[in-house]
Write a structure and sequence with these properties.
The complex is a heterodimer. Chain A contains three helices and two strands, in the order H-H-H-E-E. By secondary structure, chain A is mainly alpha-helical. Helices cover 39% and strands 12% of the residues of chain B. The chains are: A mainly alpha, B alpha/beta. Chains A and B meet through helix 1 and helix 2 of A and helix 9, helix 10, helix 11, helix 12 and helix 13 of B.
Chain lengths: 95, 487
């Protein structure tokens, strides 16, 4: 299938990637080749086959609703790129 | 003989009989790293002081007669996508260049419980995406057998550190072959356990339905030792299997007479290097000579496994990597005007080329209008692959195949063509798709003197059987670890 630059821009926006002009050109070709390779699956007539998401049969996993200690706020904030007064700091989003 | 040349079980014996101390052993490995790693570039972080301190602590416990774990005093190293509390865990990505986990991965807790000594963190393809370790944002690891060649990937640092004897044993992670293929390229033993056998808690997620942590070791006996330490149910990983595991040391008996081993035709196609085919078929003959029954089988769906794998793994990756947004941890761009811009620019600057490629493919496959054509279809193929394996396992205990179509290639050789690089995973990805356990071990060398690997695949949770077959083969060929002439 033909992949257009507009499609690449659309997918990049969904993926939250600010691709450079050069990256957009490169990824248009790469994606087209990889999708062509993936199109091999269309050779298969598998409408009646059930999809498998998980190979090991595990049912819903529940645990008791008990209060347990969690990580300290300081530890959780230790890797934050920006923080203020015990919170993650981000640009203003509400005017 | 230098201490670093010995296997884990030999060193364990020397430590237990107090012929050597862990401090002495740890220092000998640090010297080894200091002298050799500038050539190999396997390590991203070496924790010298912490390692020596830990070794001393364990020595003290031993002198006091305290109870010690099964890996007591043995210096090990782990791939840099396994979270180590207080020690940088970068995933070989600029995105996590400064990330210091505030918690320990479950496997690290298990290794600590066994009193292992952590030497450091090992290089890899960024976020475990790649088959050559060339996708690391920081350095290219070299193959100790030929420094112009790749060690394989994505656990290239883990395999190269083993082949150049810079750790007693290492851990890697395997999403589509990332333990087995580098183990094959570097001539060491590597195992991908059954999906769910080892906790993924604290393993930085790539493709959650495929990822599994596993060990790389010098020999099969060491593999049993390492596997004993890391398997087990973990309440922190809801996909981990609630079951009891055998003592894998029981698998170490030289007997394969009751085993039926399948050789799938499709794994020996024209795309496979002739020397690789020959070496693996020779191993099949060795099993026959030892009394196992070997038979040829067919895996029709094999041709479609690679496409299904890249769709499933990239889709899951695009979702897992959405968390890197420059807010809670990881890097943040300096060039942004608003929050959306912050996300987008951070992700463009923080991720490398291959990671972006996979995020794009995965996002495309999950996007409206394409979901049924790609993602859902890939999950249907997954059912067929699982059925194909189930069918073979009705008549056979194990499957024997090559690990990779070729031996280690030159650095840069496949870097420009993503599809050619992906083709290298053809023998390993079906195993992840079906969640099966598999082991990769050396079975010969090509005309350039590069290691060739064979892969033993078993039913879910049949690690013991795989280890038994691997042990018998190892006993039949050589009793010592083959090593490159490097330094």
């Amino acid at each position: 299938m033909k992949i257009t630059k507009e499609q690449v821009q659309h997918v990049a926006n969904l993926a939250r990637l600010n691709l450079t002009e050069e990256e957009q050109v490169e990824l248009t070709t790469d994606l087209e080749n990889i999708i062509a390779f993936a199109d091999k699956l269309n050779e298969l007539n598998i409408e009646h086959i059930k999809p498998t998401a998980h190979v090991i049969p595990i049912e819903n996993v529940f645990r008791k609703d008990e209060v347990r200690p969690s990580l300290e706020r300081e530890d959780l904030l230790s890797n934050a790129p920006d923080k203020q007064e015990g919170c993650f700091y981000v640009p203003k989003i509400v005017e | 003989m230098a201490l670093f040349k010995k296997t884990a079980h030999e060193l364990k014996g020397l430590l237990e009989s107090k012929e050597i101390s862990s401090e002495e052993l740890t220092k000998s490995y640090i010297e080894r790293i200091d002298s050799i790693d500038q050539k190999v570039d396997a390590y991203l972080t070496v924790c010298k002081d912490q390692a020596i301190e830990k070794a001393k602590e364990i020595d003290k416990k031993r002198v006091n007669g305290d109870e010690l774990g099964a890996l007591a005093g043995l210096p090990i190293a782990v791939k840099d996508n396994i979270c180590t509390k207080g020690i940088k865990t970068s995933c070989a990505s600029k995105m996590l260049e400064e990330f210091v986990p505030p918690y320990e991965a479950t496997v690290m807790k298990q290794l600590n419980k066994e009193d292992a000594v952590l030497l450091g963190k090992l290089n890899m393809d960024e976020f475990a995406m790649g088959g050559s370790t060339e996708n690391s944002a920081f350095k290219v690891t070299k193959n100790p057998w030929d420094l112009e060649r790749v060690p394989g990937g994505s656990s290239g640092g883990s395999a190269a550190a083993m082949a150049s004897e810079q750790a007693v044993l290492t851990l890697g992670s395997d999403t589509g072959g990332s333990i087995r293929q580098p183990a094959s390229f570097c001539g060491v033993v590597g195992m991908k356990p059954t999906y769910g056998a080892v906790s993924r808690f604290g393993l930085v997620a790539f493709a959650s339905s495929l990822d599994q942590i596993g060990p790389l070791t010098k020999d099969v006996e060491d593999m049993a030792l390492a596997m004993n330490a890391i398997v087990g149910h973990d309440p922190y990983d809801s996909t981990s299997a609630p079951m009891d595991y055998p003592n894998f040391a029981e698998a170490l008996r030289n007997d394969v007479k009751d085993l039926r081993i399948a050789i799938p035709r499709e794994y020996f196609s024209d795309g496979v290097q002739p020397e690789v085919k020959e070496a693996v078929l020779k191993a099949a003959k060795a099993y026959e000579d030892m009394g196992a029954i070997v038979g040829e089988v067919s895996m029709n769906i094999m041709d479609y496994a690679l496409a299904a794998y890249y769709l499933i793994s990239s889709a899951e990756a695009s979702s897992n990597l959405a968390r890197y947004d420059g807010v809670k941890y990881g890097m943040r761009t300096e060039n942004f005007n608003n929050l959306l811009d912050l996300y987008k620019q951070t992700r463009d600057e923080g991720f490398g080329k291959e990671v972006k490629r996979r995020i794009m493919l995965g996002t495309y496959a999950l996007s409206s209008g394409y979901y049924d054509a790609y993602y859902k279809k890939a999950q249907q193929v997954r059912t067929l692959i699982k059925d194909d394996f189930d069918k073979i396992f009705m008549d056979y205990h194990l499957i024997l195949t090559p690990v990779a179509p070729t031996t280690a290639f030159k650095i840069g050789e496949k870097a420009s063509d993503p599809i050619e690089m992906y083709m290298g995973d053809i023998c390993t990805v079906p195993v992840n798709i079906a969640g099966l356990p598999a082991l990769s071990m050396n079975c010969g060398f090509d005309n350039n003197g590069l290691p060739i690997g064979m892969q033993l695949v078993g039913k879910g949770f049949s690690e013991k059987k795989i280890l038994r077959a691997a042990y018998a083969y190892e006993q039949s060929i050589t009793k010592s670890f083959v090593r490159p002439s490097l330094g």
